[in-house]
Amino acid sequence: MQNLNLLTENSRNFSSLDELEKLYSEYVYEESEPFHPSQVSLQTDGTYAINGQEVAGTYSSLKGLCKLLRIPNPFASRIPVDLLQRNIDRLSEEANFEIKTITRKDGNIANFVKEDFVSIPHQMLFEPLANKYGSADVLEGKVSDNWLALSLTKGEDEFFKSFEGVSPNDKYDMGVVVINSPTGHMTTQARVLLHRLICMNQVVGPSNFDIVKCRPKPNRQLEKVVDNFVEGISKLYCDVNSIESAITSLDRSIKPEELKSIFNAVKKITGDVEFVDSEIFGLDPDDRKEILTNLKKYKQGQIEAPPEPQINLYDVFNNITEQAKTFEQEERYKLESYAGKLISN
Looking at the 3D structure of the chain, how many domains does it have? Predict the structure, then answer.
């Protein structure tokens, strides 16, 4: 995908519900009639030919098409363009389903989705959200062609609580992150959010925390489905004492096995080994390799126990959420969600 002339996604930040109300009219999309995937072909310049008509698309639209055709993203990103074209052509012909395009106001494609996908317009979600959470603080907000992410804290529902981290000065607010994607890049959902006040870092609650999802089906009353989703947000539950205990338990030296697991996970998200070594662990690459080599020797029975790295796990946890703020929307969300997994046990 690197050599293709794909469009970047339009994106805007906002800091209040009033700002969002002015923005969402810019992020309105149209759906095509369903058609068979074989009617799409990728051109060498990164445009699509659909029924003989040439149209441009975003980088994420091509990822979406590859996902529908079950072409793994790492593979699609690295192979030559001609091989990617052949894979798309072959798998499109074999597909036993129909798809639709989701098109931006400028006529360019934001995504490809299956024919039964039901889009929730931002405006339809905004109105009940504003009515229910108008008094909450908008911690952060971003809307793009991929999705809308709205982080709320200090609301009136029961889950909007505060607690301490590893010290009395290390305070967290609990809140909620609401995500909506009219273009089908993410499932509409609400998840528990942790906001560390000392550095403004965010942690997205892991899968074993409570979560509310909205997957509308065709022929269902969409407004009612959205209203039920917003009402469900107020029923989110998370045990504050368990979270507080999980966070404070990170204030210790990292184990070699944990370092290996975190290294692999963050490397997969960012694709940058040097970044993981320097910004997440504060390690020289040779030192990290030595730690992993000793771990391998231990598992093979060559040494009694691998030396424990002099790295604090809570620092690593905070480094992940701090560095997440330097990434684009998709990678940031993945990093903040991965940080949540570190407190899931």
Answer: 3
Mean pLDDT by runs of 10 across the 345 residues of the chain is 81 92 91 96 93 93 95 80 92 96 96 96 92 89 94 82 86 92 95 90 82 90 94 84 90 95 95 95 94 92 88 96 92 94 84
Buried b (16+ CB within 10 A) or exposed e, 61-90: bbbbbbbbbebeeeebeeeebeebeebbbe
126 and 110, same domain (yes or no): no
What's residue 1's pLDDT? 58
Last residue of a domain, one of 69, 97, 114: 114
Contact 146, 186 (CB under 8 A): yes
Q: Which residues contact 37 (CB under 8 A, 6 or more apart)?
A: 65, 68, 69, 91, 92, 95, 97, 98, 99
